[in-house]
């Protein structure tokens, strides 16, 4: 019985196949991604709970800044 793959697993498999077929393009993309970062991979890796914690943390940091530092 074949196990169903999650969408993120399918996407990772497609990325791996693309890397194998286009090695030079992969090197160029990796160079540019290293300069700017790729926020979609960050969000995908965190999941919805981690993303929610990130948003709440940023909001809390802004409140502390607004009350104590700028105040």
From TrEMBL:
Residue ranges of the TM segments: 48-68
Chain intervals with Basic and acidic residues compositional bias: 1-19
Pfam families referenced in this protein's UniProt entry, alphabetically: DUF6366
InterPro entries per UniProt: DUF6366
Keywords, sorted A to Z: Membrane, Transmembrane, Transmembrane helix
Domain of life of the source: Bacteria
Region of interest called Disordered, as start-end residue ranges on this chain: 1-35
Name of this chain's protein: Phage capsid protein
Organism annotation: Salibacterium halotolerans
